[in-house]
Amino acid sequence: MSTQETHDHGHGDGHAHEPQSFLSKYIFPLDHKMIAMQYLFTGMAMALIGGFTVYVFRMQLAFPGAHVPGFGMVSPDRYNMLVTSHGTIMIFWVAMPVLIAALGNYLIPLMIGADDMVFPRINRLSYQIFLLSALVLISSFFVTGGAFGGAWTAYPPLSARGDYNATGLGSSLWLVAVALEFVAFLLGGINFITTAMNARAPGMKLTDIPMVVWMIVLASIMFMASVGPLVAGAIMLLFDQQLGTAFFDPNRGGDPVLWQHLFWFFGHPEVYVVLLPAMGIVAEVITTFARKKLFAYKTVLYTAAATGIIGFFVWAHHQFIAGIDPRMASLFTITTLIISVPVAEMLFVYIATLYGGSIRLTTPMLWALAFIAEFLLGGVTGIFLGAAGSDIYFHDTYFVVAHFHYTFFPIAFIATFAAITYWFPKMFGRMMDERLGKIHFWITIIAFNFIFIPLFLTGAAGDHRRIYNYQHFPEQWTPTLQNLRILATYALLVMIAAQVIFFVNFFKSLKSGPKAEKNPWKANTLEWVAPSPPPHGNFEEMPTVYRGPYEYGHPDRELDYWPQNEPA
Amino acid sequence: MTTVTSTSAVRPEPRPKKKIAHSGVIGMLVFVLTEIMFFAGLISAVTITRSTALMNIWPPPGQPRLPVEETLINTAALLLSGVLLGVAHFRFKKSPELVKAPLIAAMLLGAAFVGLQGAEWVALLAQGLTPQSSAHGAFFYLIVGIHGLHALAAIGGLAYVLRRAQQGRLIASELHTAEIFWYFVVLLWPVIYGRLYF
Amino acid sequence: MYERFFTAASTYARDIDYLILLILVCVGFGFIVAEIVFFGFIFKFRAQDGVKTQYVTGEEKSQKKWVSMPHYLVLVLDVLIVIGALKVWSDIKIEMPEPDAKIRVIGQQWAWSFVHEGADGKLDTADDIRTVEELHVEVNKTYHFLLEARDVLHSFSVPAFRLKQDAVPGRVITGWFKATETGTFDIQCAEICGVGHGIMAARIIIDSPEDYAAWVKKGGPTAFWAASNVKAPGAAKAAIDAPTPTLTANNAAPLPQ
Amino acid sequence: MRWTWVITVSLFFAPALALGCAVCGTGPERSRAAYISMTALLSLLPLTMLGALVWLFVRRLRRLEPKEGPPPREVVSEPSGP
């Protein structure tokens, strides 16, 4: 891996556009768009697994001890495996590959007017390692002892010894899968950063880069800068599991709290790593459908950079009650609350962008607006957890669960749906069905709120996480709280069922949707200059850039949009 | 809010832009940044584990002390190879042919470093320092081992550069990309040496 | 505010509840204003035929103030919250009042055990009272607890006290509380600790001084579990060693009405 | 925004004056110092390195620019309609 760059960099600029065999086109492609599709479909498949796990354990919580259709009884060890798998899969195998890898791969070259990534072979290797990591993770379900059951945070000593966590090889496979997955995104990140720096179309200044590209690049930089310590920790933990070393074993001179530092040093920036691309998608969609110039482009850019920088100083707020120095906790309370300022400002800018617009509520626009509305709630509830005093009470309760689902669900699903519905015509050359899209949108959003508002309440009442059954805690085992849990479960069933509509819409439109023109949304950015779907090599004629990406409704122009590549 | 017309709607005809640095160099710099963070994680882990040691005794009782003096030879070899690669860098500006000799010397010194390190491992294993024996041993084998793997990979990179030079097809960016990684491996070692051996 | 819905039984539960209220008011205000403006814009600026969009760059000072004003508002609210949060944090975690008594709390897979000072008022003496899954404390008395873990991380959580502290193997972590109400409340384990995490429950029993003295005199655990309608965790723990289906089958306990 | 940092720093040192402490004294003083220094190292290192990279690139960019002549100037737009 280390010498890969040396081998590949000669292939950066020229691309063969000759016809390709099935194998080289679909299985081992160098084309960034095909690699993006591989990431997208792998991510969607993993989302199905993640969705199945949540269905099983929510059923167990609503009807403890009942037979879950399609799974069977949920024993406590199975329950732990299910919640661990749900968390890991949804963050590392759904949010990351879809938001960063798939959209980054698809959009960066198209939006900056390049014919491909600068390191196409590293790009292909990145997906292959990612696929391998997914296979390793899935294989851990089938080994003796089952999948890892020590929560996605994998705190040792629980995660370090099979006799503590009751999973054997599964926990090592889990670690290997996570580490491989990081290597895959590391390779992808190198590609994104270098491509955005070196392959921009002539005339594209830094302030002409569409916001989503900036955000993916900033997210990649954050990821690259934060992932190292966790990979180090993962190797140490793997050694503890397999070689009997004692890095995290307090009885033999190790320190279990060390892992928490290494983990959260990555774990919290990770939140912003997935948040920023989602924010970028929303910027693209709302400017297109409000026909408005993005309010204060530079402010958005600076707030995103500020979020990235402050994002490195907030991670210890996950450890307020973990026995760290309380003075350090005071400091991290302050930084955690400070980070709310740039994130809030970004949302204000988006709201201000809507002012004076001409808003068309198409499906992608509905998703993008829903992102802002829902993410606001996720953001403000984070303040309760960032303030050390109230975190004593809320830590590891369902309040936390509801809070981060109000951030992660908008990020990983709402923004992704906005992206898929918005770029679908470009990706597949066909339009999606608006009516089915809207039905899917409304059911998903309403059900989503019905899942997590009850969980805010049960969390505030003291329900803590990762409990397979509350009957041993008399204060939590009350009819009111149980009814809330049942309500959340029913809402979840509705939401999962609604995703069938999405898949129907997706595959039906893929096969028989009306043909899309080059620029169906009348948008400005460069990807709409390419044919739909773009061929290998992307553009018929390599574009040149004359202006920023958000010149909608310019007073000098009859048309309300002004593509970036059109000469004045 | 008022409407404004004073935006950059018209610009001079764009020209093909110049690159800040070659893609390979940028990619390698970003990769090295990640690697530095990886080793920063490992080194902070050592620092913390050492600070929690019982009675502040390090290495733990019954564990052999690491061969500080012998390792100086390794360290010198590695640093010298870094210097030689620097020589290659400047000779490349004169003629690509001239890089071969310092490159081969740098590779040999690098290989000597890895070899001596291997010999040290064997000796220490015989003295009872194993990954399982204490956190001291575990960190030693983990960090030195991972650094050794990086050194091997970097030697591989240099070998690739050498082959290109022999074919007469070596270009500056290839040399620079390999150089960055080798300097990273070289300069990382004194930090590891200072943190682990003392 | 909070105690109206959830019992607050320690001195600092009020502090934490007031902090939660403070945050709720601050962020609730910001949230509602932002959402009203947001939905207002969506409603007002729907696409209409013949109405062209306004061209606003947002780069000018007069325009930027529409974003920077709420931005300063957020900053002010943040400072308010930070002051409250740090005050509460410092009162609870940093400054510790002198103890009237000490208890040792030990978490292990999957039970809490407690060591009470016996009649002599000292820990680690022969007359210590050891209990499993029930903790007896006296009301209005400041306790220091010495928190230990035997195997993996646990978290000592008493929701009624708004108290939560991780137990880390290899360390002894000291914390404090002062109960203000008599009664019986839940003790939970709030950090995943393995298969039995969900059964790692205990009860804290806050006695009046007379009752507590009587309990100490008796020198042993009460028959709390026998008297309660809640199943003793001990029974569930026996089941956890049995094959897992038995455990899930046992779970179908009816809800208390 | 200087006063924000003044508050930040002063609030950080304020609690240090308190004598008792819930989890202090659970390990040797050196261990806490090690944790704090590690936190500082891990948080500052990436930003320093990124800052250095950005500085390097900006400098190189500035060196490339003069050769290309004056950078494109922002021009006030004129009505381009018919």
Which geometry of chain A do the CA atoms define? globular
Average pLDDT reading of chain A: 90
Spans of chain D of at least 5 consecutive residues whose pLDDT stays below 50 are 11-25, 67-82
> What is the rounded Rg of chain A?
23 Å
Number of helices of chain D: 2
Tally of extended strands of chain A?
Answer: 0
Note the beta-strand portion of chain D.
under 5%
List unreliable stretches of 5+ residues of chain A. Answer: 1-16
The span between the termini of chain D is 49 Å
Structural domains of chain A: how many: 1
Within CATH, the superfamily of chain A carries the name Cytochrome c oxidase-like, subunit I domain
Report the biggest beta sheet of chain A as strand number plus sense, adding barrel if it closes: none
Distance between the termini of chain A: 46 Å
Q: Structural class from helices and strands of chain D?
A: mainly alpha
Helix content of chain D: 55-70%
Q: What is the overall pLDDT average of chain D? A: 64
Percentage of residues in strands of chain A: under 5%
Number of helices of chain A: 16
SSE succession of chain D: HH
Main beta sheet of chain D, described?
A: none
CATH architectural designation of chain A: Up-down Bundle
SSE order and pairing:
The complex is a heterotetramer of chains A (568), B (198), C (257) and D (82).
Chain A: H1 4-8, H2 22-27, H3 32-62, H4 76-112, H5 120-139, H6 162-165, H7 169-198, H8 211-242, H9 256-290, H10 297-310, H11 326-354, H12 363-386, H13 388-394, H14 398-428, H15 434-460, H16 479-512
Chain B: H1 23-51, H2 68-94, H3 100-126, H4 135-167, H5 172-196
Helix pairs in contact in B: 1-4, 1-5, 2-3, 2-5, 3-4, 4-5
Chain C: H1 11-44, H2 61-94, E1 101-108, E2 111-116, E3 129-132, E4 134-138, E5 142-149, E6 154-158, E7 163-167, E8 173-178, E9 183-189, E10 202-207, H3 209-218, H4 224-227, H5 233-241, H6 244-249
Helix pairs in contact in C: 1-2
